[in-house]
Task: structure prediction
Amino acid sequence: MNSLAYALLAMLVRKPCSGYELAEMLEVFWQAKHSQIYPLLAKLEHDGYLIPENVEQTGRPNKKLYHITSEGKEMLRAWMDKAPSVPVSRDEFLIKAYSISLTDTDTAQRLFEDRLSYYKEKLLRREKLIQEMEAEYGTDLKDQEHQIFGRYIVHQRKLLMEQQEIAWCRWVLAMIN
Amino acid sequence: MNSLAYALLAMLVRKPCSGYELAEMLEVFWQAKHSQIYPLLAKLEHDGYLIPENVEQTGRPNKKLYHITSEGKEMLRAWMDKAPSVPVSRDEFLIKAYSISLTDTDTAQRLFEDRLSYYKEKLLRREKLIQEMEAEYGTDLKDQEHQIFGRYIVHQRKLLMEQQEIAWCRWVLAMIN
DNA sequence: GCACTCATGTAAGGAGTTACATGATTAG
DNA sequence: CTAATCATGTAACTCCTTACATGAGTGC
Result:
């Protein structure tokens, strides 16, 4: 059981998902390729933490929806008590920002403008997602007892981060112009 | 040449460092263990991007200070023009925050209080470091031409992130109490 | 026709972590 | 006397990415 395994279980508590969906949804806290997800789902199924449901579809490929078992949920609950490992962030852009004096103003500007666009796009998606959550759950979002609470606070955190990245990029761009 | 290799070159442009120092300093943008750093430094030396200088010390082990060569600097400069790969962040804490409804209020509170302490500590170190930079470089920090500029903006970004993490933890703690 | 989305898998290799190994000095 | 800091390395293993593989439907 590694962190990714717990990330998958955490997503599947909310609702049953296919590997394909999980790969997308995982973006919030753990980036993983499908080539890592599919074998791990098979392992979790083998260990009794997940049960697959074959769903036949028309107009698109069939899929396997994974349902979490009570053992899976218990596994995740037990893991909650352990101290989380230190966060890891690996961001090539920051290495380039650090080395900004090596390059010309144009390249530097492009670097920061691309970063700005990237996070503007991310922010738009996040705002949309949060608006959808607000429309669907209303004041339940602020209720710690409610199942949605965890998802809400995590996306709020990401929203803040994206807003800050945008503000910081603009601050830097103002200095290099 | 992987991202870590460029991160090492970026640090060594500022000043010659030992592997031990690099492992500490790298924390800003790339987490790496010494077991990954030492072999990579040897490879970069072999490829002509670094030159080692043996420094004998009394009262502590000798060390190797790596100096970047003009080839190394050119390699880094050339890499600046390429678009950076997408940032990766892997944070077990966020998986736990997402699953907060599975646990009791006490565990949840401890989780967030530990996170808060961790980032308060980080913030203190960061503030100290930035104050030192301000004392040493003054208005040069805001000059894009100056070598220190890149280092300054990256640490400013980290400072903001830490402040925001603290504020967010307090926001969540206020809701679960 | 070409690229993209949905959908699931395997194989090979590169990146990163944990453990093994050594050893002097300093602070509690 | 125990732990931490400084200092460098290797070995074994796990984790993660890239590439290989397949295939129907949709939009341009």
About this structure: Residues 78 and 113 of chain B are 44 Å apart (CA to CA). The mean pLDDT of chain B is 96.
